[in-house]
Amino acid sequence: MGSIGIIGGGVVGLCTGIALLEAGHHVSIVDDDAEGKAASWGNAGHIAVEQVEPLASMSMVRSLPQRLFLRGGPLGFPPSAIAEWMPFGLRLLAAARPAQFRKGCQALAPLLAGSMSAWTSLVERIGAPELVKQDGHFVLWHGERAAREGRASWMASNTGSAQVQDATDAERAMLSALGKSPVADAIRFTGSGQIADLGDLRQALGNAFAQRGGKRVTQRGELRAAGGRVEIAGIDTEQVLVCAGVRSRELMEHLGHKVPMIAERGYHIRADASHWPADLPPVVLEERSMIVTRYRNAVQAASFVELGKVDAPADPRKWERLERHVAELDLPLRGPFRRWMGCRPTLPDYLPAIGRSTKASNLLYAFGHQHLGLTLAPITARLVASMVAGEQPELPLAPFDIQRFA
């Protein structure tokens, strides 16, 4: 077997590194995120098998005015980043056309359908089955109108392998007890799940990678091209895989690929877990565009889609609004809160980029998983391992070819 260098040590990079090591390859991960600040380790922890419909849709476009941050919604367009979000938005509009939206659903559906089994298989192999909880999740509304519209929207949506059912009376009472106001309605998804703790996941994946003989190189990965091939500066490998999240754009465009990816920035606050029910699955509060997840020692409230620059400073108003939501609802989250912001790597059609480069014969890529990076990491790893082995992947990869933007 050959040697493979992976640029990017987030959840996709680690899962893929483990899969390649198990296939007999020599694998090095090159990554400079020693403190685990990437989006992989600050997300909502939700294994979102229900999100078959890409966010690039006409329904999202029509609802955009009501979703703006300035009107109390989750969507931010920083004026200083107009050069990034304007061209991205125009491409998103093209991808939201009904025919393109249907193609996006057809591409995501089989990928998501296999994601839960890919996760359970992975955590079993690394000896940490407790990291995946298959308890579904709740969606709730406090207002009657929001409940009617939200329920109707979910009932009309393609949720793939996830099922939607009414919350029971006992579940509604439990959800109402979380705050000062009773819920008007709630639904429960089955088939979805969560990671029990992101910190524990990062540790377990890192240990499994090392135990299988993987090598970690703590440096910023840089590509050099020569003779129709690429190499990672300072690393001797036969093949190279780019899965560096938002940094993948600069790496791929340096080689001549068109990668219209944006940093879709999300925010969270965390508090001590002692006041939140220990066995409660993730709870989505749709009127606040917020998801609350219980981890081992913390409860996290997350929100916002801020289309901006990778290295721009965080907007403290986002954290302040999350804290205000918690206070207004009187949720059992007690400060002081720990604040985080991270960048989701998002392409305008809300499909990932997975494939082999046309610019360099030994270059593969797997990035742009937007909100689904955690969900799709193990199944992406299987697809990449198949490509490296020269086998036919279990799913068609043509919809995810980065050349769709050429």
Q: If you had to describe this structure to a student in words, what would you say it looks like?
A:
- This protein is α/β, with parallel strands linked by helices.
- It contains eleven helices and 20 strands.
- It has helices spanning 11-22, 58-67, 82-95, 98-113, 115-125, 144-155, 169-176, 198-211, 248-253, 316-329, 373-388; strands spanning 3-7, 26-30, 46-47, 75-76, 132-133, 137-141, 163-166, 185-190, 193-195, 215-217, 223-226, 229-232, 239-242, 262-272, 283-285, 290-294, 298-308, 338-346, 353-356, 363-367.
- Strands 4, 6, 7, 8, 14, 15, 16, 17 and 18 form a nine-stranded mixed sheet that branches. A six-stranded mixed sheet has the order 10-2-1-13-20-19.
- Strand 16 (290-294) and strand 17 form a beta hairpin.
- It is globular.
- It starts with a strand and ends in an 18-residue tail after the last helix.
- The mean pLDDT is 96.
